[in-house]
Design goal:
The complex is a heterodimer. By secondary structure, chain A is an alpha/beta fold. Helices cover about 30% and strands about 25% of the residues of chain A. Chain A is built from eleven helices and 25 strands. The longest helix of chain A is centred in the last third of the chain and has 20 residues. Chain B has a domain of about 50 residues: Cytochrome Bc1 Complex, Chain D, domain 2. The relative contact order of chain B is 0.12. Classes of the chains: A alpha/beta, B mainly alpha.
Chain lengths: ~425, ~110
């Protein structure tokens, strides 16, 4: 009857694999690379779950976290970046985490050390890598130069580029075209591009009603919540948003405002927001962790998120090779982090990692400044298949955009930021 | 590579090794860790260890009666209690998981 009875816990309980007392764990060192949704959560939960017995250093160059989720609202004009920022200092004050404000430049998995840009070297017993993604600019001809010159922006990591993209839209004359190009999945934040189209349309509708949003998608169809986004575009933004599928960008020429495709005719736009293919961040790839999908993503043992390429290194968040129907989202990274944190605490205490970890995911998308839709899922680890699968019958979508879900989306953001940072 | 799925391994060892009191003390930590890890999947919306933020529109779970939490989850699953999202999430957790979660949150200080 009960497909996931917790008999496993009982078995582990009776088994008594834990014989190493807490002192063994005391003073163990964990280094976390990256202070995003994954890394900050991992740092906090390793402290919580180890009852503050494990020393944690978070390597993150910024003073404050800026959320990617909700940053499309900055582009739409209803939020500021400050609304989406929280300091890292609470992790130090409340949880005793050392914040190394620096970049990790290399990892030695044999010596178990991390070298920082400032020259210092951190040694670790366990390393958490939550490095996020790199954008592969060179996958589109002309993009590396256009990107360096600030002519074509991505704004796929919230920060100064988010503001810069908003400024490009503000400077665009009414009647202009904003083109958003989307790479083939998988990419960070599956509903993100489509939410961004809504947000730019929301801005145009009120301030530049003759302007257009052109969504040029390399995929067969909208990657996340297709029916909800299509309905929003046709009912709320008629004549503003146009969606074209199977449009794979091969080149851009910003001086002429041109976008070139593999098969379709060229498109002209005033503001080009080209999202190139994505892959695991450089620190993960150069450490040799990106052993999946032709070196794009990092393989992990899903029970613990320990790298399948290097012992004692745990990779979480957008950089991993995902399991079936697992989105590259902030919420998912936060959940990866908790499984990895529990596994690290278990390993350092000499007990078996949780035989049956669970993950949840919720992605809220803002259709305008207050109406929201969601997609949700629950994922269970299946020991027999050594992977996560979605629990059948669970999860689902909103019926329609509502303000009630808008209030829940805002609550989700505040709460998950506190869950990772406070 | 493990020769057997972990559950089978655990069961096999369970039969083979008698449990001593010293082991049992350590094992409570293991169970606590698994339950904390399970409960952490609720924290994104309900707050760390079930503590909602002040002014939250989603209720906290800490310090509520286990029976009430189990009944609510059941009502979400059956559709008796309407929701935007929780009916979808509730279906992802088994009854025994729900019981463990409810007991965990009931034991947290409000």
């Amino acid at each position: 009857m009960d497909r996931r009875s917790f008999i496993q816990v009982g078995a582990a309980l009776a088994l008594g694999v834990s014989s190493i007392p807490a002192q063994a764990m005391r003073g163990a060192k964990v280094v976390v690379i990256g202070g995003g949704y994954g890394g900050a959560t991992a740092a906090k939960y390793i402290r919580l779950l180890s009852k503050q017995r494990i020393e944690v250093t978070l390597v993150e160059p910024e003073q404050s976290f800026i959320s990617c989720p909700l940053s499309n609202l900055v582009i739409g004009g209803s939020r500021s970046l400050a609304d989406l920022s929280r300091p890292y200092s609470t992790l130090t004050k409340q949880h005793g985490i050392t914040h190394a404000r620096d970049m990790a430049v290399s990892v030695d998995p044999v010596a178990r050390t991390v070298k920082l840009a400032g020259g210092s070297v951190l040694s670790y017993d366990k390393l958490v890598m939550s490095p996020g993604i790199d954008l592969n600019y060179s996958s589109i001809e002309g993009l590396p130069e256009a990107q360096r010159q600030g002519k074509i922006l991505q704004a796929w990591k919230a920060g100064p580029e988010t503001i810069a993209l908003r400024k490009q839209l503000e400077a665009m004359p009414d009647g202009g075209v904003y083109a958003l190009t989307i790479p083939e999945a998988p990419f960070r934040c599956p509903p993100g591009p489509y939410e961004r189209a809504c947000q730019v349309a929301f801005y145009f509708q009120r301030h530049k009603p003759k302007s257009k949003v052109l969504v040029l998608d390399a995929n067969q169809d909208i990657v996340s919540k297709p029916a909800l986004f299509k309905k929003a575009w046709s009912e709320r933004y008629p004549g503003i948003v146009e969606y074209r599928n199977q449009h794979k960008v091969v080149a851009v020429a910003p001086s002429e405002g041109l976008i070139k495709f593999d098969v379709h005719a060229d498109v002209k736009a005033d503001v080009i927001n080209a999202l190139p293919a994505m892959r695991a961040n450089k620190i993960a790839t150069q450490t040799g962790l990106a052993n999946m999908a032709d070196g794009r993503w990092c393989g992990v043992n899903y029970q613990t998120f320990e790298s399948s390429a290097a012992k004692d290194i745990f990779v979480i968040g957008d950089a991993i090779q995902v399991a079936q129907l697992m989105p590259k989202s902030g919420h998912m990274a936060n959940n990866h982090a908790k499984v990895a944190a529990a596994a690290i605490v278990a390993q350092l205490s000499g007990i078996e990692p949780n035989p049956q970890p669970m993950l949840t995911n919720t992605c809220y998308s803002f259709i305008d400044d207050r109406n929201v839709v969601h997609v949700a899922s629950v994922h269970e680890y299946l020991a027999t298949e050594r992977t996560f699968k979605v629990v059948q019958g669970a999860g689902g979508l909103s019926a329609e955009p509502t303000e009630l879900e808008g209030s829940y989306a805002n609550n989700w953001a505040r709460t998950i930021w506190a869950d990772m940072l406070e | 590579m493990r020769p057997y799925p972990i559950l089978l391994t655990l069961f096999a060892l369970h039969i083979a090794i008698p449990v001593s009191p010293a082991h049992a003390a350590g094992d409570i930590e293991a169970k606590q860790l698994y339950v904390q890890s399970l409960a952490a999947t609720c924290a994104n919306c309900h707050g760390t260890e079930g503590h909602a933020l002040s002014g939250a529109t989603v209720p906290g779970l800490a310090g509520r009666s286990a029976d009430e939490l189990v009944a609510q989850m059941k009502a979400f699953r059956s559709g008796e209690r309407k929701a935007t999202i929780m009916h979808q999430i509730a279906k992802g957790f088994s009854e025994s998981q729900t019981q463990l979660l409810a007991e965990y949150f009931a034991a947290q200080k409000r």
